[in-house]
Write a structure and sequence with these properties.
By secondary structure, the chain is α/β, with parallel strands linked by helices. The chain is built from 10 helices and 10 strands.
């Protein structure tokens, strides 16, 4: 059990754009945007604190949406975080950021603000909306000047895979403090996500070389190897070795689903993973999260069900991305479609 427990909290669906890879609006152009009321925000917040008290964990919130700043009680909620000395990161858009707004977020305790770059200018603006790329690059400076850490996240698919090295260069040049990428989870839309295992491994190799070159040059950007298949890559290249003192049956890393993370949507619905459509395990307004964790979440901790990973020595450390597996094949426990390792 990790010290911190993370709550990915979607307080509103309201957003200034309709990204082609957004899980909220995928396949539902007429989706009605929902937002929590202030009493619901308070109920959800204290339910999360109760959970952490029961399980002796420290709460960490990833506040998101939609764009959370569009919620009418956004600043009031930040004051509630500050009142209870609860750390948080905001995942949002760049459009409403400026120096005073970023300083105010920092005052209330925001540690990081995450923006997205999903391609170079033309591709990113195609994913999101015209002008988004330039606005995102510009607002990295606002975040940094306020004393928060700027995070750039890229969602990788076959559509933008070749542009990832260029995205890294753009993020570094703009002064991003952190860069990471994760894979797009197929949702039945038109976006082509069908990278082969070989293509994806080649991408990791290219990025690893670029990361090391930047680090050797004294670059201050932290390259967060977020995708769990980085563990497999590190294992094959000798950068990761199996600990000699590892305990049988223990989980030490890999996918956080069922371990140290839940998602809460504006409806109050609680999901084991936001990117797995059928992973609803409760509702924060009707259920005590401490009870949901024992009952509703247990099926996501049955690691023997993983068809491929259960046979792999990296099971306690990797497990790929079950959400990508489910989005591709319909089975949460199927083999990660980009995993290139052969297991017996």
């Amino acid at each position: 059990m990790k010290r911190y427990f993370s709550f990915q909290w979607h307080i509103t669906d309201e957003c200034d754009q309709r990204c082609k890879h957004c899980y909220i609006f995928s396949g539902d152009a007429g989706h009605e945007c929902k937002s929590m009321t202030w009493p619901q925000l308070e109920d959800a917040f204290y339910n999360c604190l109760d959970f952490c008290q029961v399980y002796d964990r420290l709460p960490y919130f990833y506040l998101t949406g939609g764009d959370p700043i569009l919620h009418p009680d956004f600043w009031r909620l930040l004051a509630l975080f500050q009142e209870h000395s609860v750390p948080f990161t905001i995942l949002g858009n760049p459009y409403h950021l400026n120096d005073p707004v970023c300083r105010e977020m920092k005052f209330f305790g925001c540690e990081k603000y995450q923006l997205s770059l999903d391609g170079l200018r033309e591709t990113h603006d195609w994913f999101r909306k015209p002008g988004s790329f330039a606005c995102t690059i510009e607002k990295i400076g606002c975040i940094n000047r306020a004393g928060m850490r700027s995070v750039i996240m890229t969602t990788v698919s076959k559509t933008n895979r070749a542009e990832v090295p260029g995205i890294i260069d753009a993020a570094v040049a703009a002064g991003a403090n952190v860069f990471a990428f994760s894979r797009y989870v197929p949702t039945g839309g038109d976006l082509d996500a069908s990278m082969t295992p070989g293509e994806y491994r080649d991408l990791l190799a290219v990025c690893d070389k670029k990361f090391k070159a930047y680090e050797a040059a004294g670059c201050q950007t932290y390259f967060n190897k977020k995708d769990h298949l980085w563990t497999l890559y590190a294992y094959e290249t000798g950068a990761f070795q199996l600990p000699a003192d590892a305990e049988a049956g223990m989980i030490y890393g890999g996918c956080n689903c069922g371990n140290c993370h839940i998602t809460i949507l504006p409806t109050g619905d609680v999901y084991a993973c936001r990117r797995v459509a059928e992973s609803k395990v409760g509702n924060v307004f009707a259920d005590r999260l401490a009870d949901v964790w024992v009952c509703g979440m247990e099926r996501y901790r049955d690691y023997t069900k993983f068809q491929k990973c259960a046979k792999c020595e990296l099971l306690p450390y990797c497990r790929g991305c079950p959400a990508v597996a489910r989005g591709t094949s319909g089975d949460f426990y199927a083999a990660d479609p980009q995993c290139w390792k052969e297991v017996g």
